[in-house]
Write a structure and sequence with these properties.
Helices cover 38% and strands 29% of the residues. It has 242 residues and is α/β, with parallel strands linked by helices. Helix 9 (201-213) packs parallel to helix 11.
């Protein structure tokens, strides 16, 4: 199982939002690349980056900051505002390893299918769920579709990786929504990266146990718990590596 330490970028800075709300912002660092360098020094191969301004605006707004992170040599998984093929190609072109399509995946299966045909497993789909329904456009709107239904449509298109975020637990430090994550694991052949709610090492231990039952649990995104010093990245990496 892979630990994906998270960096959310807003106005060029490393921040965290509670439940995705722009008015619930905590600034943790002025330079996201400095944070990524710390993750790398701790032993992480991957970093999960979200361009929050991009998610709200509909196109990337912090690509210079993302490029600085990619220049460190880590594998970067990037989401936020990637709603055209041109922006996807640009991100992949400067070293991003995997891009995450969110809002557009709920709007256009043809768009996702085109990207999968062109870029294969470099394309992931982010499914953000609010009470089981798909949330879009920076989580400020809800699509008329369940998270599981969207997952099954993405499976049919050949999407190999889904990032499943439970909005109700995101940034709340209350623990993951394990039943929702397990339901997603059972929904298709895709790999699942769980996101939302990790608050202590025991959460990762429990997810590791779930990964032993479901081989398609690829990993977990950990954000606020790292910044609030509730968990230590080297410890989580050791747990996840079994």
């Amino acid at each position: 199982m892979t630990i994906y330490p998270a960096i959310d970028i807003k106005s060029g800075r490393c921040v965290r939002l509670t439940q995705g709300r722009a008015d619930q912002e905590t600034i943790y660092a002025e330079n996201p690349a400095d944070v990524a360098a710390e993750f790398k020094a701790a032993g992480s191969d991957w970093v999960h980056v979200v361009d929050l301004d991009g998610a709200f605006a509909g196109e990337p707004q912090n690509l210079a900051a993302v490029q600085a992170v990619a220049a460190l040599g880590m594998k970067v998984q990037l989401g936020g505002g990637l709603r055209t093929r041109a922006t996807v190609e640009r991100a992949l072109g400067f070293g991003v390893s995997r891009v995450v399509i969110g809002t557009r995946a709920a709007e256009s299966e043809a768009f996702v299918g085109e990207l999968v045909q062109a870029f294969g497993d470099k394309i992931a789909v982010g499914i953000d769920a609010k009470n089981g329904q798909v949330a879009v456009k920076g989580w400020v709107a809800t699509a008329a579709m369940s998270a599981l239904a969207l997952a099954q449509r993405m499976d049919a298109l050949g999407v190999r990786t889904l990032i499943h975020t439970d909005i109700g637990t995101d940034g709340m430090l209350t623990g993951p929504n394990f039943p929702a994550q397990e339901a997603m694991l059972r929904a298709g052949k895709f790999n699942v990266i769980a996101s939302g709610g990790v608050s202590r090492r025991e959460d990762v231990v429990k997810l590791m146990a779930l990964a032993r039952q479901h081989a398609n649990l690829d990993g977990v995104i950990v954000g606020k718990a790292l910044y609030e010093k509730r968990v230590e990245l080297p410890d989580l990496l050791t747990i996840a590596r079994g």
